[in-house]
Amino acid sequence: MEIPLLKEIVVVLGISIVIILAFQKLKVPSILGFLFAGIIVGPSAFNLLSSRHEVELLSEIGIIFLLFIIGIELSFSGLMKIKKTVFVGGGLQVGGTILITALVAMALGIDLNTAVFIGFLISLSSTAIVLKMLQEKGEIKSPHGRIALGILIFQDIIVVPMMLLTPILAGKAENIGETLLILLVKLIGVGLVVFVLQKYVVPFIFKLVVKSKNRELFILTTIVFCFSVAWLTSSVGLSLALGAFFAGLIISESEYSHQATANVLPFREIFISFFFISVGSLLDIHFFINNVVYILLFVLAVLIIKVVIVAFVALFLQNQPRTVFLSAFSIFQVGEFSLLLSTVGLQNDLLPDALYQYFLAVCIITMALTPFVLQKSHKMSDFLLRAAIPKRVRKRMNKRKIDSSSQEVDSDHDWKDHVIIVGYGINGQNISRVTSHIDIPYVIVDMDYEAIKLAKQKNQPVIYGDASDPEILKHIHIQKARVVVIAISDPGATKKIISSVRLFSQTVYIIVRTRYVKEIEENMKIGADEVIPEEFETSIEIFTRVLRQYMVTQGDIENIVTSIRSSDYQMLTSIKPTSTNAVFQQLNIPDKEVATLHVQHGNNNIAGASIGESGIGKNYNVTVLAIKRGRKYISDINPETRIEIDDLVYIFGAPKAINALNKVIKF
């Protein structure tokens, strides 16, 4: 029996594979490959989708999984940390975009209700593309990454009221007050259910599932829970996406959140591809060609409106000019929830077919532009900073920031021989804690409002500012500093800071924290003295402990670590061995090993006896190296040393002998 949907899946994903492989060769993001594949299989091209409705259903499942994972990664506590950005920033961005878009639409002769609805559509950006790109670039925790995340979260939440208000705009609601009241009651009811689930139901159910030690059951429970909450919100007239988001938030506070994310992630990647393909298939190519000039003008108008409003919001939230521009370049597009909302508008006759095609073209073009703009956002921001803000104005702005945000740092203080810590994240906090403990003078520089607030609460010497700006560097006496530690998550900003610091001082020692080894060489070229990549420092710590278990001397371990770091971690990145260092030859002594045995059984001649009396060396041909008793280590071993029940005994010998001894003291 032929399954029609199976053919659609094979055709659509098969074409996508070919296109994405070609796009990867051209270094074009895979998202654009899915959009292009959708256009090819769509009705205006080769019309390969006979089960169109089923493909759209698969795309909606992708949105559900997407929002579920976003909810898990965010958490209620995480939401509260950026509540100002979410509710104030998001509210200003959505409200401002709706207002300006509606005014422009009305000026073009569109009626008020449709104009407001178009404002709804244009105000929403692409959570799927932006968060994916920011995560890949390692900028999700940067100042502009947090602004983008906060505004996108608000957009994901506000899309539900927009969907419910659409019938009202279309004039299909008889009593507006009653409709809004019912909406409020529904939201409160869902909120109560979510609270009960998070507090009582989910921990209990997942505890039982985890105890079963059945991985398949855990995956099944996670997916059923995601779809159950989505179905709950849908059944009361709210959106599936909001329910999935709530489901993620509920699980986010539990210890099972990371495993849940790992289980759902493959499903998200598969189904979200159908979403982008279905979006591309909606485009009418003939309409696009015939109206390409007007479409490009509308795209330009949308870009200007959204960039200006997001820039205003970021400025209102007291961010540096560079963060303002980076934020604006992150969420300038029209997103996937606009497409979902547009279908509601079509169903309620609020969006004519011609306007829908214009909107669809604008949406696809802006989404397609997003990866390219995000890749070049740092260069464009730097260009605009030089061109748009006169040097005198920028100097006054920075001076005002320093005066208003640096109460703990005396501007007349004669800082010298101090450490400058750029970024007050986890690394910055740890560095400041240690330098404070050993009385090394230091000053912290950060642009994140929450980080500044936290530093002030701890009475840290902190100033608000961009460490790449000359005025900030002068203020913290960069010429007199001994060390600069750059501990931020923004690769572009890191490079800019290094270059700026080197303009003032060639002697200050610059230490940079990065995520990837590939960033080492470039940072070193522009002036960094030492670059520490997170991805391999963890590996070094792990194998250092492994070498200790093989009795490699501390001096040899230090030589190995030094060799790896001095060669920019080539030993860890190369498939073939980069060295035949003799140190590694002593790791494996033929037919011998070091083991730790737990003395659990007292009915033998070993527990309670001395080493000499027990005959361990004579009967089992092993050597006792040390004994751990409680928290105490006994390293001075002699024949009179006694072995007690519950001791951990470190021994050296042949594997067979060790196993034989283990059976005696354990069973």
UniProtKB/TrEMBL annotation:
A GO BP annotation: potassium ion transport
Positions of transmembrane segments: 6-23, 30-49, 61-79, 86-110, 116-135, 147-170, 176-197, 217-234, 270-289, 295-317, 324-343, 355-374
Source superkingdom: Bacteria
Similarity-based family: Belongs to the monovalent cation:proton antiporter 2 (CPA2) transporter (TC 2.A.37) family.
Residue span, RCK C-terminal domain: 582-667
Alphabetical list of PROSITE patterns matching this protein: RCK_C, RCK_N
GO MF annotations in UniProt: antiporter activity; monoatomic cation transmembrane transporter activity
Membrane-related topology note: Multi-pass membrane protein
Signal peptide from the UniProt entry: none
Name used for this protein in its record: Potassium transporter KefB
Transmembrane recorded as keyword: yes
Keywords: Ion transport, Membrane, Potassium, Potassium transport, Transmembrane, Transmembrane helix, Transport
Domain RCK N-terminal: 416-533
Cellular location(s): Membrane
Pfam families to which the protein is assigned, alphabetical: Na_H_Exchanger (PF00999), TrkA_C (PF02080), TrkA_N (PF02254)
Signal recorded as keyword: no
Annotated GO CC locations: membrane
